[in-house]
């Protein structure tokens, strides 16, 4: 059993977390700091938090011996997911009693016990907090009490929507029906149906006799309004027949529709910009060759042809990525098979552009076990990760590709020494068309599709991919696949 809980260290560390929140920090940095504080105080070998949505869960924060699991998905129909979401809210679990792949992965990392507590808001599960222990460190009831308390703290962060959830729209966004309110002439709520509470997160007790939490459009008109937490509501209003000058207001969550509209507009803007550049260069050099062929020497002609070829390759690659993002990227229905990961990495490196290949440092052990997956798609994954590393680092800086085995998993990493990635961006970077803050788009051109495609390809092979800041500066992208 672990030593007694270090409550002074836990309280001191928790104070730091609260000060982070009070100073404006939110989301993943705060959550990860909470795990870093709790792990040594609890005597745990590692900590992890799994965020759950309608389609399953994903490890969004991990420390210590659990860091390898960062980014790992948990499907909704996985038996381990069902086990973690059932039973008491706080409990102790022996890893060997789990029935899915997770048990083998944890055992392979010498993790055999866990204390797990669900983070819940009004009976809705937003995630689960895990403290992991080795075989010799069976936890006790004190650890369960602290983990239950910390899970409640995380649930409170979700209730505030302070940078969380990382995925999805939160626990009170999806409404089963339109919200309905009746307001008096002063704009105060007289009736507030359950769907209104579900859409806005404002209970009946909070809403009655208070002003609406959004602007009231003129009677008969429709207004789209953005709430402070970033969600969009479509609001309509009309006069209610009868005395008293009452107005009925209906509203629904249209965040997904707004996001789709935004993605469509962003797709047009980004692709038009990215396509225009190579097309303009190709046309310019082609016109030069056509109009000035006789006046150009052999060196100039070859240079023009070389540039046209390079830009045509860029254009072809961009078109492939756009088509892949609109279709099902990855191996499709092809079954997973064992393949030599080291040989596949070396082969994929050989197909990279020469200017990128010169910067690579490949460190792959000769006895690396086989991986289970779809070998041809590895070239796409490595191309996207190395291209991304090259784009966000100095032209003469090295890019390291390393590989290793970790229990039942085989992993490879692409590490650069570039501008790095902020902790709150490590998950958003996998969103389609997302490229960091607005100023980054012009400084680092691209369609924002590479990491999106990588995650889709890897997860279709029962693996997962994650990003993290590199110690000393830069970014590490890590792909984990099952052993063959």
From TrEMBL:
Gene3D superfamilies on file: 1.10.287.130, Histidine kinase-like ATPase, C-terminal domain, PAS domain
Cited SUPFAM superfamilies: ATPase domain of HSP90 chaperone/DNA topoisomerase II/histidine kinase, Homodimeric domain of signal transducing histidine kinase, PYP-like sensor domain (PAS domain)
GO CC annotation, single: plasma membrane
Keywords: ATP-binding, Kinase, Membrane, Nucleotide-binding, Phosphoprotein, Transferase, Transmembrane, Transmembrane helix, Two-component regulatory system
Domain Histidine kinase: 270-484
Keyword Methyltransferase applies: no
Membrane topology of this protein: Multi-pass membrane protein
Catalysed reactions, as listed in the record: ATP + protein L-histidine = ADP + protein N-phospho-L-histidine
Molecular-function GO terms, alphabetical: ATP binding; phosphorelay response regulator activity; phosphorelay sensor kinase activity; protein kinase activator activity
InterPro entries tied to this protein: BphY/WalK/GraS-like, HATPase_C_sf, HATPase_dom, His_kinase_dom, HisK_dim/P_dom, HisK_dim/P_sf, PAS, PAS-like_dom_sf
Enzyme class: transferase
GO biological process, one term: osmosensory signaling via phosphorelay pathway
EC id: 2.7.13.3
Subcellular locations according to the entry: Cell membrane; Membrane
Primary subcellular site in the record, as a coarse category: membrane
Domain PAS, residue spans: 172-209
Name of the protein this chain belongs to: Sensor-like histidine kinase SenX3
Organism: Micromonospora jinlongensis
């Amino acid at each position: 059993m672990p030593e007694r809980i270090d409550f002074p260290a836990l309280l001191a560390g928790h104070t730091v977390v609260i000060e982070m929140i009070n100073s404006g920090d939110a989301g993943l940095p705060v959550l990860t700091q909470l795990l870093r504080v709790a792990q040594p105080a609890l005597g745990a070998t590692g900590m992890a938090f799994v965020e759950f949505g309608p389609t399953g869960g994903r490890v969004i924060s991990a420390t210590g011996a659990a860091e390898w699991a960062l980014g790992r998905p948990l499907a909704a129909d996985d038996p381990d997911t069902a086990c973690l979401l059932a039973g008491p809210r706080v409990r102790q679990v022996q890893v060997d009693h789990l029935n899915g792949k997770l048990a083998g992965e944890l055992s392979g990392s010498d993790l055999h016990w866990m204390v797990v507590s669900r983070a819940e808001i009004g009976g809705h599960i937003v995630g689960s907090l895990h403290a992991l222990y080795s075989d010799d460190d069976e936890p006790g009831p004190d650890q369960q009490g602290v983990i239950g308390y910390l899970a409640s703290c995380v649930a409170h962060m979700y209730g505030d929507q302070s940078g969380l959830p990382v995925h999805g729209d939160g626990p009170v966004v999806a409404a089963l029906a339109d919200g309905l309110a009746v307001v008096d002439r002063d704009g105060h709520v007289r009736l507030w149906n359950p769907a209104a509470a579900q859409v806005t997160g404002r209970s009946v007790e909070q809403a009655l006799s208070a002003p609406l939490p959004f602007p009231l459009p003129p009677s008969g008109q429709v207004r789209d309004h953005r709430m402070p937490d970033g969600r969009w509501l479509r609001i309509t209003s009309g006069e209610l027949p009868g005395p008293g000058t009452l107005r009925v207001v209906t509203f629904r969550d249209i965040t997904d529709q707004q996001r789709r509209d935004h993605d469509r507009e962003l797709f047009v803007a980004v692709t038009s910009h990215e396509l225009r550049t190579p097309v303009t260069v190709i046309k310019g050099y082609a016109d030069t060759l056509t109009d000035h062929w006789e006046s150009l020497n052999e060196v100039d002609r070859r240079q023009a042809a070389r540039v046209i070829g390079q830009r045509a390759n860029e254009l072809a690659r961009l078109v492939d990525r756009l088509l892949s993002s609109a279709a099902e990227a990855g191996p499709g229905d092809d079954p997973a098979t064992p393949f030599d990961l080291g040989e596949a990495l070396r082969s994929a490196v050989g197909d990279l552009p020469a200017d990128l290949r010169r910067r690579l440092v490949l460190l792959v052990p000769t006895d690396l076990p086989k991986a289970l997956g779809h070998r041809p798609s590895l070239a796409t994954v490595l191309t996207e990760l190395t291209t991304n590393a090259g784009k966000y680092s100095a032209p003469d800086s090295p890019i390291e590709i390393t590989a290793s085995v970790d229990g039942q998993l085989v992993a490879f990493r692409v590490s650069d020494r570039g501008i790095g990635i902020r902790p709150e961006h490590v998950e958003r970077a996998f969103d389609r068309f997302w490229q960091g803050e607005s100023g980054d788009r012009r400084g680092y051109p691209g369609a924002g599709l590479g990491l999106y495609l990588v995650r889709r390809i890897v997860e279709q092979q029962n693996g997962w991919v994650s990003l993290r800041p590199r110690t000393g500066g830069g970014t590490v992208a890590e792909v984990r696949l099952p052993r063959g």
